[in-house]
Specification:
- Pfam families: RVT_1 (PF00078).
- This is Reverse transcriptase domain-containing protein.
- The protein has 368 residues and is of the alpha+beta class.
- The chain is built from 13 helices and 16 strands.
- The strands form five sheets. Strands 1, 2, 5, 6 and 7 form a five-stranded mixed sheet that branches. A five-stranded mixed sheet has the order 10-11-3-13-14. A two-stranded antiparallel sheet has the order 4-12.
- Strand 13, helix 9 and strand 14 form a beta-alpha-beta unit.
- Helix 5 runs antiparallel to helix 6 and helix 5 crosses helix 7.
- 27% of the residues are buried.
Amino acid sequence: MNFMKEFHRDGEVVKDINRTFVTLIPKVGKLETIKDYRPISLVGSMYKILAKVLANRLRKKMNVIIGESQMAFVKGRQIIDSFVIAEEVIHKSKHEKEGGLLVKLDFEKAYNSVDHSFHDFMMEGMGFGIKWRGWMRECTSTPLVSELVNGRATAQFGLENGLRQGDPLSPFLFNIVVEGLNCLLKKATNMGLIEGERFDEDKVHISHLQFADDTILFIKPRMDYLMNAKRLLRCFELVSGLKINFHKSRVARVGIVKAEESARWATTFKCKTTSLPITYLGFPLRGKPGSKMFWNSLVDRIEKRLAPWKREFLSKGGTLVLIKAVISSMPTYFLFIFKIPVGWPKESRSSKGIFCGVMVFLKERLMR
């Protein structure tokens, strides 16, 4: 295609190709403010072809430029890896004298607040050439955006910050940005400003795990470590634009740490306390898969997913799509890690059995 050749030669995207509509998707059931919506970009097909080609080239180098703590969108790494490592770290903390703290961070409007200049700075530090950096600046900084309000487009405006959700490049570019946080945390750990968990005779030091914007910190329960971590997060916010929403972040105690101490640490972070098990990447971290309640929570999640759908508004074809594309993946996800307990009915102990159980449940709810 000619426009691909022109982009490669000139490093510029034709404005008409890079126009975008943005629609707002509800994030929560109760909608009160604009923060309760998630902006999704409806990117044009011509630009998407270009972005997909660049994303495929970028994907091949992600395992070289992205640190080992990041598991998202990197070939050879899986979401399950983050969960299994987190389980091992917590298990070790529980059996140590001083215990530990788990800080689950929540980024506020992560994709929408990325600073373009910091993104370019990170790419330069990783060794990207002028041409590649220019291509990325052109793709992220030049789009003209129109909001869709009640089906009608508003006047166009440019993007000063942020990455478009819906752009094939965005997940990889976001990984490059949050790699800055990984570098800061590793530097602080090596300098003794933060202490996590050590394995293999102190050869492996784990202070944090990342999956895209899902980040958890493992910190020893000392005030100086927590204050250093908070200062570091504030510095990262100032340079990258990624702000931590401490109201949604949580601090959980691990091992012998007392509840009163945990509350004091949480006050330092200006966030709330919680207790294990907590949900991490869709899995219950430090849950008890041998109990019936653990698996009953899976049924509760399915019911919650079905709640917005009304039976009278779904055709049988639509119901089948809902089952195959959405609901059937939920038990599969759990079975990647957890084994169904013996206490469940015999016919439900196999993966086939649990699928049958889910399908019967759905048939009763949606297809009667």
